Amino acid sequence: MNLDFNITVIGLGLIGGSYAMALKELNPKNLWGVDIDSETIKSAEKMGIIDKGYTDAAIPLSKSDIVIVSLYPDLTVQFIKNNINNFKRGSVITDTSGIKSKVVNEVSSFLPDYVDFLGGHPMAGKESKGLAFASKDIFKNTNYILTPTEKNKVENIQLIKDIALSIGCTNIVSVDPKTHDKIIAYTSGLPHLIAIALVGCDSFNEKSKSFIGGGFRDTTRIAAINPELWSELFISNKSNVINQIEEFQNNLSVLKSAIENEDICEIEDIFNVARKKRSELNNNE
Amino acid sequence: MNLDFNITVIGLGLIGGSYAMALKELNPKNLWGVDIDSETIKSAEKMGIIDKGYTDAAIPLSKSDIVIVSLYPDLTVQFIKNNINNFKRGSVITDTSGIKSKVVNEVSSFLPDYVDFLGGHPMAGKESKGLAFASKDIFKNTNYILTPTEKNKVENIQLIKDIALSIGCTNIVSVDPKTHDKIIAYTSGLPHLIAIALVGCDSFNEKSKSFIGGGFRDTTRIAAINPELWSELFISNKSNVINQIEEFQNNLSVLKSAIENEDICEIEDIFNVARKKRSELNNNE
Predict the structure, then answer these.
(1) What burial class does residue A115 get, using C-beta atoms within 10 Å of its C-beta: 0-12 exposed, 13-18 middle, 19+ buried?
(2) What's the CA gap between B110 and A102, in Å, rounded?
(3) Which pairing describes strands B143-147 and B116-122: parallel, antiparallel, or unpaired?
(4) How far is residue A123's CA from residue B64's CA, in Å, rounded to a whole number?
(5) Nearest CB neighbour to B247, from listed A183, A195, A202
(6) Contacts of B215 in chain A (CB under 8 A)
(7) Which one of A6, A9, A46, A193 is least enclosed by Cβ atoms within 10 Å?
(8) Cβ B249–A248 below 8 Å, yes or no?
């Protein structure tokens, strides 16, 4: 795509750093980075993934057409609030945080009309945080969720969609922030909690490591979680997460009873449904 | 290794077929295959992974030094019982089934002294069954569990260990059958049930598919289960599996309460422990 804009990425961590790397490939007019850590800025400049970096956001924001905020959810809101007078008239701000109702509602409550905020959530991540693990390929073949509201300009929604496609995402979906949080509690929150509860068993010890196959490895990969980020995500999405845990626990209890009762028919029925449902995902793998 | 023996593989499915392929590379004196399906035998012969195949096991068994039974657990016991008079004096039989107490105890109860049975469990598998998905590489870098008893001859245990190493397994561990079943309920049974209960949620639908990232994919990969095999494995290992489900459910309930109470300290503590525990596995990945 023709990206003849000034763009600033706020927060050069895993996602922000990866976003900058991927944007750099699209040759934007200027690509600036903001981070509180001057060493991170130096690294990003040295790696050539931004044209210039700043610890003070005011300078690049005043000239930026597009601002991508890649911070934890509460910090995202706080950053936009603190810089409310620094954004360029007509600019579009998007974010990458994993919770949307809270972020979109809070930002909407203080954002002036001459700036557009579009909630975003690229479904990309890794078990390691920080710029050192960033990669322009992190978005390849992933889902990217947008949570537009009636306040957003159609052309700005289209612009962020085009960018998402250009950095490699294959599926851009738009839903309201509330629906995002409900679904994400299932597709992202619940698997993380499950992996953590599984690794947390006393049976995980030196001896059991010799009994581990690919299944256990895959099921627990995301147990290597970023504690600060995820505790915030879970608490911000509490009621949806609790509901999902309960549905999952009920399913597991049904399986437990079926095994206890040696009810082969019910066990095989549940297994067949699971096999069929999971196989539906394979087309995208 | 020098494999100057006649070997027969019983059951040319995913594991048996893969075992035959891997053994073929080691140039055994003769490598025979047994299957109830004559089409499978024809395929295996055509693929060159066995020297000759049989639907009647009596012929190859009488001349085989090593017999590898790759059938479901109950069928494994039944096969050995039905062929009790066909085994060569001094031969060693091993199996590949995922449950060991039942198989080892039952086989021990009727096996004559002049044949040695050593329980085995290669920690290898796939989401697809049958010879068509077999691969000689399935054992590469995997764990292989042996469950010797005082009845086994030392040289036979060593022989099966050497074979396991030669087909690519990196870690051969010996435990008693009871311990195997306890640990395997955790490292293999529980992750499968979790993946199934997760996929079984109503939230798994057309809409939520756009919200899926690598975490959900990995956590649910093994939900594409073989229903007949696994219902047997779970029922045969009932009490261990139930105990593991309960420990896991308790862990998840603790997490649920911590989120409900917005107890950031407890959440982060649990996450940090999980992160550390899971990271210990990375050296082997």
Answers:
(1) middle
(2) 67
(3) antiparallel
(4) 54
(5) A202
(6) 125, 188, 191-192, 195, 221-222
(7) A46
(8) no
State the Cα angle at A52 between A46 and A54, rounded to 5°: 110
Contact between chains at B203 and A256 (C-beta distance less than 8 A): no
Q: B121 vs chain A: nearest CA distance in angstroms?
A: 9
Cα A137-A10-A22 angle, rounded to 5 deg: 20
Question: How many CA within 13 A on the CB side of residue A158?
Answer: 4
Please list the pLDDT of chain B residue by residue as tens digits (285 residues). 889 999 999 999 999 999 999 999 999 999 999 999 999 999 999 999 999 999 999 999 999 999 999 999 999 999 999 999 999 999 999 999 999 999 999 999 999 999 999 999 999 887 778 899 999 999 999 999 999 999 999 999 999 999 999 999 999 999 999 999 999 999 999 999 999 999 999 999 998 988 998 899 999 999 999 999 999 999 999 999 999 999 999 999 999 999 999 999 999 999 999 999 999 887 544
Q: What is the pTM of this model?
A: 0.91
Tokens of B235: 């029922």
- HSE (side-chain half, CA atoms, 13 Å) at B172: 18
Residue B137 DSSP class: G
Q: How far is CA B108 from the centre of its chain?
A: 20
Which residues, listed in sequence order, are joined to residue B106 by a DSSP beta bridge? none
Contact B255 A196 (CB under 8 A): yes
DSSP B152: S
The β-bridge partners of A119 are A147
Query: Are B45 and B58 within 8 A, CB to CB?
Result: no
Query: CB pairs under 8 A, 24+ apart, for A24-31?
Result: A24/A48, A24/A49, A24/A50, A24/A136, A25/A136, A25/A167, A26/A1, A26/A163, A26/A166, A26/A167, A27/A3, A28/A3, A28/A4, A29/A3, A29/A4, A29/A5, A30/A6, A30/A63, A31/A7
Q: Could you tell me the two tokens for B154?
A: 């030392």
Interface ipTM: 0.90
Those residues whose C-beta lies under 8 Å from the C-beta of residue B82, and which sit 6 or more positions away, are none
Secondary structure (H, E, C), A96-161: CCCCCHHHHHHHHHHCCCCCEEEEEEECCCCCCCCHHHCCHHHHCCCEEEEECCCCCCHHHHHHHH
